[in-house]
Amino acid sequence: AGMSGNHLAKTQNEIVCDTIIVMYHSPFKTFNVSIASENIGDSVLINNMPINSIGNYHSANLDVSIREKHNNSVFWIVGKNLIPSTLTISNVLNSSQTLHTKSTITLSEKERINDIIQEIRNTPSWYKNVEGKAKKENISIEEALKNDAKWMYDNERVNK
Q: What percent of the chain is predicted at pLDDT more than 70?
């Protein structure tokens, strides 16, 4: 939830959050994202994928697929006690992992729903939950996947 200006910290370094929506305008589709959190052991995710951590420093190369003729990459960073003033994006890649993802906002509805279906398939507990829904509602697993993905897509749009 947002805060009014008089409730914000006096200096930028004192601002801590749990979610950052990043829009990066660049012709480069692969870049490095780094951020610090307040505590050692805090986990950080980019578009629901965990990134490497060394102490309270988190970094990953990000390979973003975006729609043709667009130069904006949009992605979510989620974690505990993130320090936004430490966020850096660099076109110089490091030797850490490279995450492959798609820009969340520049995708069409159909593309995003297909991505969510893939996320469901890659998350065993989520997939098992969808299988249970399919059985309970007496529908195919494919239909249940589409229903869950559509619900998730609609809720992403409402919460943005």
A: 75
Confirm if 113 and 149 have CB atoms less than 8 A apart.
Answer: yes
Residue type, 114: N
Kindly state whether residues 119 and 47 are assigned to the same domain: no
Mean pLDDT of 95-116: 68
CA dihedral 20, 112, 94, 123 (to 10 degrees): 90
Task: Show the domain range for 147.
Answer: 110-158
Q: Exposed e or buried b for every residue in 107-145, given b needs 16+ CB within 10 A?
A: beeeebbebbbebbeeeeebbeebeeebeeeeeeeeebb
In the chain, the number of structural domains is 2
> Residues 99, 116: one domain?
no
Kindly report the pTM of this predicted structure: 0.54
Do 38 and 76 have their domain in common? yes
Determine which helix (DSSP H) or strand (DSSP E) holds 124, and give its type and residue range.
helix 124-137
Query: Facing residues of 156 across strands?
Result: none
Average pLDDT, the chain: 79
